[in-house]
Amino acid sequence: MTDTTTNPAAPVPGAADTGAATGQTSGRPDTWASADRGQLIERAEVIVTSPNRNFVTLKITTADGVTGLGDATLNGRELGVAAYLSEHVVPLLIGRDASRIEDAWQFLYRSSYWRRGPVTMAAIASVDMALWDIKAKVAGMPLYQLLGGASRTGLMAYGHASGKELPELFDSIREHQEEGYRSIRVQTGVPGLESIYGIASNKTTEGNEGVRYDFEPAQRGAFPAMEDWDTRAYLRHVPTVFEAVRNEFGPELPLLHDGHHRMTPLQAAKLGKSLEPYDLFWLEDCTPAENQEALKLVRQHTTTPLAIGEVFNTIWDFKDIIRDQLIDYVRGAVTHMGGISPLRKTMDYAAMYQVKSGFHGPTDISPVGLAAQMHLGMAIHNFGIQEYMQHGPQTNQVFQQTFTFTDGYLHPGDEPGLGVSLDVDEAGKYPYEQAYLPFNRLADGTVHDW
Ligand code: KDG
Ligand code: MG
User: What is the pTM of this model?
Assistant: First the structure.
């Protein structure tokens, strides 16, 4: 664990005694008089730990000793967010009123002048999450109650089945069903390609025996691993896989697939169309969505539902594609969209267009981020599905969690707050280890989207 706390308990700003807004005076934190001085932020610690993988967590403590946790993990760029938090955010938090969540969010977003971007928004997200955790603990309620109460009894979750060849894939689907999953993402190898996105290592390989294993793309080491890619081979192969899966598992099982940003608009349109007979729940990230116009072309050619947005940072990234009804599912993560507050706004906006949630839930969303998403998913009306890759055993020892996964449905539990606590001693056993996501090269050596 790396504790990069820069501000030990700082004195509460005296000007707050006036009962008026203090404004920005000579280097003092901007805060207002709090009705309850016990809610002023006394400590904020940035905790970097690497049990099964790297995680960045913000822990905020109020004068009353109430603590809140926020997830700031940005896969492969963790220390960038840790430094942003320690150097630029933690000093602004000390002495602020923890109960003023929206004000803290707006202050961090607007006062920095430089807006958006994954580093900034992951840092702001962690503050937002931690403050909601504190507010719910002070209220004595699980967070979903504060967000409006439960709209459902549980969250349908999907897991990641994969296999290089069909027999392994079928085994993996069956294993997921045995664990309770009722919706399944399907990724396979492509003939001629050595290693590609989404295929878990074989459980029976050395070191993995007996271990439940979902695909974990970040690999420890000083340089990203190289994978190979050929879109034409992929487009030829994927429909045959879904045909085989439908023949084996029948028409009912909801199936998902992640294109992981690799296709041109025309290729994506072609894939969507060729998958229509297999009735996918969604096709994810069919194109790299910087060019959002691309989705118009895809939409003109296929009725396969589209999900996008795991790399988006703000409601602005979703605004036009929701308004133009180019997507069906919002793949944003609480951790990368600036927190619970802005993702809630995005989902309320999406509801006007019948667009539902499909929050990003791979293992690089920490247990804290996952819990925050579960509470939000419980409360909103337009919940769709929750991605759920299971964290490893060491991670689950560092982060104690109250959520349940029963018969394919997640529930965040009913403890006050988010329902996650962090064992600092356990976290300390796992110092940060450099790790990167892989990258792609085509046969001629060109770097391709990964
Ligand atoms: O950090 C990158 C991963 O979270 C991403 O590759 C996982 O695409 C992903 C998914 O849909 O879970
Ligand atoms: Mg994805």
Answer: 0.92
